């Protein structure tokens, strides 16, 4: 799928996304802050102990300078961690920070008409993304965004959170799609692309060849283009992971979706935490030096803060560079209900915690999705900085 973006500057971005795509507000922490954003007292800088860069060393640092589980417990006790959703018979309104904008505006109309003209499927519509109105109309930043899937619009899995249609035998992929997609992206003058797809368990290579071919054709047409691939787990097949990892991409992304303890309740039975972690580890091993790995999880599925922290630790131990956190939104009454609405303050605490754990970038907020808005620009600048250092 594609994100077609137009900017007030001369640059624009196209993204092609996976069915669970989550937004990235560009917010880079430059110093540690006190945990409670509601506190008016100045934060006190605590000297960082010299700890080895191991999981034990990170835990030691976190104990001194970062949000702790007791802090999250205090937020819960003070009703500052989340907002209740009510009951089936008596649902409560969404909190103000979860209000969605109504789609509209000239950019929204232009993108919608162009996508219909090209007969392209968008994840924005298929998954009922809560940011569709903001992305397609440009929002406050003037950045217009749309999302298109490759490998068709029908997934072979049935995760409880996703609204993309499913089938055991979806139509075969269009063999000309990698060429057509590459030529279309190149002609639109984009400089950062995110490629994603539905799961294709029906294919012998899980769709990995299609992914790799699309990336390679893009790199042939635009060698300087930065490419992020947000991929399925390929059932943990090392050959599939290696094929995509070595295709020329710059960011290998795969979403673990939720904490380890809730995997079976949230995702399709063919997916699991261990398999996803192994995929991210293999990608880091197979990909050329400098390739970033990235994952995302949803909050509000019934997880607890300690489960989130333990999951973050395991993700970081797998060498993942970028992690994002967003609020789960129920696509329809047929899907898994929302357990709670996590507050922006709690999301921000996870962001601080993640940066202190050693992630190179963490995006965390109620409306965050794994690829959205200015976040790609930060990742782009990070890759370019790495290249500059390695060539000096």
TrEMBL record:
Binds 2 [4Fe-4S] clusters per subunit. One cluster is coordinated with 3 cysteines and an exchangeable S-adenosyl-L-methionine. [4Fe-4S] cluster 1 binds at residues 124, 129, 135, 371. GO terms for cellular component: mitochondrion. Pathway: Protein modification; protein lipoylation via endogenous pathway; protein N(6)-(lipoyl)lysine from octanoyl-[acyl-carrier-protein]: step 2/2. PROSITE patterns: RADICAL_SAM. GO terms for biological process: protein lipoylation. Gene3D superfamilies: Aldolase class I. It is found in: Mitochondrion. Keywords: 4Fe-4S, Iron, Iron-sulfur, Metal-binding, Mitochondrion, S-adenosyl-L-methionine, Transferase. It comes from the Eukaryota. [4Fe-4S] cluster 2 binds at residues 155, 159, 162. Its cofactor is [4Fe-4S] cluster. Its EC number is 2.8.1.8. One of its GO terms (molecular function) is lipoate synthase activity. Belongs to the radical SAM superfamily. Lipoyl synthase family. This is Lipoyl synthase, mitochondrial. It comes from Tetracentron sinense.
